[in-house]
């Protein structure tokens, strides 16, 4: 594109607000519109994935087979994971990135607005293709989200569709990641040096690099599954001299950084919210940045702790055990920094802060069980039991999902200019915080007692805790309808109270977006801001 | 957008796309790298065929339990058994075993057997001097065949290995 054309487009933007009518949402290249699309799509997928989880919990309410066939049950565990990871949690964070990164660094939009639109619609295409496998002969993939061969190769007609949907989702993520890196590198306001960026921007920068490094590897692995099934190769087929364990190595080389893709932006939003409500600068800003980078680096060299039971040599078990335990150090730095930020702060407990504090406590709990799983000798007992299910749900639901909720409550007044209903929101928080523990805490006991994951039936000794867990699941699931209601009401006018530009007391000292008018105009920072907040230091 | 930023964006995108390509190639390169790594460390327990007979001094001071297990890949219509399940052997001595393979189907079958040693790290001490491993064989419908394997355990085998298992798995490779 020539400079002249670029100038012309630039002028166009000044003349028009958003496109009128429905077409606005299809062809938009505005970072705020695309952010909204991502967030709404993520919310919809949260309910799709959640419904699948409720089917699982309904079947597990009592021992014996009640509602679904074992095959469909396993499809549900697989699809629940894929939809939640690729359709809900990741897109939600990309939505926040789209809305917030330009606002936080003083840029007019994302660096590549049209690619931004395309990466969103590829995501929709990928998820639709994945969902279509539910209606295919032989059913949706039922091998678990890890798609281990040889089991996954027994999938029916759905296999190539599942693999192509993974390709589409991968391309979408890579495009999103490239866009975010280009925006952060090239579009910052003049005084916004790297070490003055808000931590949410930092964590997303590192996350984007993780995505670029791992998505091609995952695409490569699933392509090999495809050729093994249809083109007689034997990458993972022992009959032809291949090795199924190799798939596990490649998968987890992708998979471990992938779980950090879902937690690093969580850290970023928590580090944004906690200082505002503690009315103090973030404690240890630069150590937060370095800790994030350290966690990202370590994520590439610990993958085989997911496969302690494949029969690795002792030296391998020891290496992966110690390397994994190292991760507790930078993560500990973060937990202590958040605690130190709150220490002697003038704290108030609005809903975003409540969710953030719950995150700090419950994520720490999930981290501790992670440390237990890192111990190679005892992992043999927990491996593939409900203990690991409890572990990663503690690091995903009361961590990533809670922080997504916190971020929504935190920024929605800024975005819409309307205040949400604080009473209802707190009710939503307490319902969620209590039920999430009823849901996942008993799964620790089940796992330690030996209940395997991904099995639709179980021994009667596990009956009581499964019932408790299922009750928690239904309370948690239905509580989230309250979130939808609160958000809908806020968008439609909220409590009627007009929010100030900075929304939260002294928020403008923490980050750029709070100095803009509420609601945020359709176009912002057409000229870069002169001054930037200095509250990190 | 200002043309200078546009230029820098293009450069960033090019660099990042190159990184994407590099990581994809890395995934493909993992296949041969893994094979090399396994050969060096014996991770996946595959034995290597020795080209010549080995002459070790037999270590009569100790005996190890040497076990034979047989299995077939899914859907492979063979009956496959070792004549004995277990032998007491001295490291360095030649271990011979006869296997019986029968094609249970009424069709001609191509099949091959892949070996593995457990525990994996001990694989470099188990030498096979004669094996039908990895070679594609033809079994006529209903045919029964007796096949021999000769193995030697290297006497430098560390003392912590008191029990070794030699497994063979037959796969139907008929196209």
Explained architecture:
The complex is a heterodimer of chains A (537) and B (175). Chain A has one domain: Cytochrome c oxidase-like, subunit I domain (Cytochrome C Oxidase, Chain A, Up-down Bundle). Helices cover 67% and strands 0% of the residues of chain A. Chain A starts with a helix and ends in a 46-residue tail after the last helix. Chain B folds into 2 domains: 41 residues; 109 residues, Ctag/Cox11 (Ctag/Cox11 (Pfam 04442)). Chain B has 1 helix and 9 strands, in the order αβββββββββ. The termini of chain B are far apart. The longest helix of chain B has 39 residues. The interface between A and B is large, with 44 and 41 residues.
Key phrases:
heterodimer, A: 537 residues, mainly alpha, Cytochrome C Oxidase, Chain A, 67% helix, globular, disordered N terminus, B: 175 residues, alpha+beta, Ctag/Cox11 (Pfam 04442), 5-stranded mixed beta sheet, 9 strands
């Amino acid at each position: 594109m020539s400079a002249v054309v670029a100038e012309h487009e630039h002028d166009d933007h000044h003349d028009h607000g958003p496109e009128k009518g429905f077409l606005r949402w299809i062809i938009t290249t505005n970072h705020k519109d695309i952010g909204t699309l991502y967030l709404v799509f993520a919310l919809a997928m949260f309910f799709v994935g959640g419904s699948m989880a409720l089917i699982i919990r309904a079947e597990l309410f009592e021992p014996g087979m009640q509602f679904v066939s074992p095959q469909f049950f396993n499809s549900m565990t697989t699809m629940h994971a894929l939809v939640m990871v690729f359709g809900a949690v990741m897109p939600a964070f990309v939505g926040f990135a789209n809305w917030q990164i330009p606002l936080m660094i003083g840029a007019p939009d994302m660096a590549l607005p049209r690619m931004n639109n395309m990466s969103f619609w590829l995501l929709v295409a990928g998820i639709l293709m994945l969902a279509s496998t539910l209606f295919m002969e032989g059913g949706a993939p039922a091998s678990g989200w890890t798609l281990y061969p040889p089991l996954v190769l027994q999938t029916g007609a759905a296999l190539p569709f599942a693999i192509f949907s993974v390709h589409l989702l991968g391309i979408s993520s890579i495009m999103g990641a490239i866009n975010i890196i280009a925006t952060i590198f090239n579009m910052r306001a003049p005084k916004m040096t790297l070490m003055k960026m808000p931590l949410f921007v930092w964590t997303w920068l590192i996350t984007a690099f993780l995505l670029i490094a791992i998505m091609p590897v995952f695409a490569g692995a699933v392509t090999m599954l495809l050729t093994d099934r249809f083109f007689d190769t034997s990458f993972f087929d022992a009959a032809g001299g291949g090795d199924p364990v190799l798939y596990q190595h490649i998968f987890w080389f992708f998979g471990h950084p992938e779980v950090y893709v879902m937690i690093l932006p969580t850290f970023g939003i928590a580090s944004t919210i906690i200082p505002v409500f503690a009315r103090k600068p973030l404690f240890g800003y630069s150590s937060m940045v370095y800790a994030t980078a350290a966690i990202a680096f370590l994520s590439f060299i610990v993958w085989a702790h997911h496969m302690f039971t494949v029969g690795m040599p002792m030296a391998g078990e020891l290496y992966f055990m110690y390397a994994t335990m190292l991760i507790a150090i930078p993560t500990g730095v973060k937990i202590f920094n958040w605690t130190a930020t709150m220490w002697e702060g003038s704290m108030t407990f609005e809903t975003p802060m409540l969710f953030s504090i719950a995150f700090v406590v419950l994520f720490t709990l999930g981290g501790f069980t992670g440390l237990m799983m890192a111990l190679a000798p005892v992992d043999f007992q927990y491996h593939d039991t409900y203990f690991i299910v409890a572990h990663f749900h503690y690091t995903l639901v009361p961590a990533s999902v809670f922080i997504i909720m916190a971020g929504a409550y935190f920024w929605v007044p800024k975005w819409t200019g309307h205040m949400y209903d604080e009473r209802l929101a707190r009710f939503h928080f307490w319902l969620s915080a209590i039920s999430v523990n009823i849901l996942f805490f008993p799964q620790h006991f089940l796992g330690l007692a030996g209940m395997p994951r991904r099995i639709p039936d179980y021994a009667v000794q596990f009956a009581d805790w499964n019932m408790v867990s299922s009750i928690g699941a239904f309370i948690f699931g239905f509580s989230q309808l309250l979130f939808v209601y609160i958000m809908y009401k806020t968008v439609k006018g909220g409590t009627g109270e007009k929010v100030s530009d900075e929304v939260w007391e002294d928020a403008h000292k923490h980050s750029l977006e709070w100095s803009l008018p509420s609601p945020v105009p359709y176009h912002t920072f057409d000229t870069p801001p002169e001054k930037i907040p200095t509250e990190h230091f | 957008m200002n043309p200078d930023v546009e230029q820098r964006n293009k450069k960033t995108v090019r660099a990042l796309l190159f990184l994407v390509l590099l990581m994809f190639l890395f995934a493909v390169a993992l296949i041969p790298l893994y094979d090399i790594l396994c050969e060096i460390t014996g991770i996946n327990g595959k034995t290597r065929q020795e080209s010549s007979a080995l002459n070790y001094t037999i270590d009569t001071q100790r005996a190890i339990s040497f076990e034979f297990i047989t299995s077939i890949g899914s859907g492979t219509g063979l009956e496959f058994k070792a004549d004995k399940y277990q032998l007491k052997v001295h490291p360095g001595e030649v271990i011979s075993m006869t296997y019986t393979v029968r094609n249970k189907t009424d069709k001609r079958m191509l099949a091959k057997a892949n070996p593995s040693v457990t525990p994996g790290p001990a694989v470099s001490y188990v030498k096979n001097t004669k094996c039908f491993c990895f070679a594609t064989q033809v079994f006529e419908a209903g045919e029964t065949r007796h096949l021999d394997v000769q193995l030697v355990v290297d006497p430098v085998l560390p003392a912590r290995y008191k029990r070794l298992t030699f497994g063979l798995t037959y796969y139907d490779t008929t196209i």
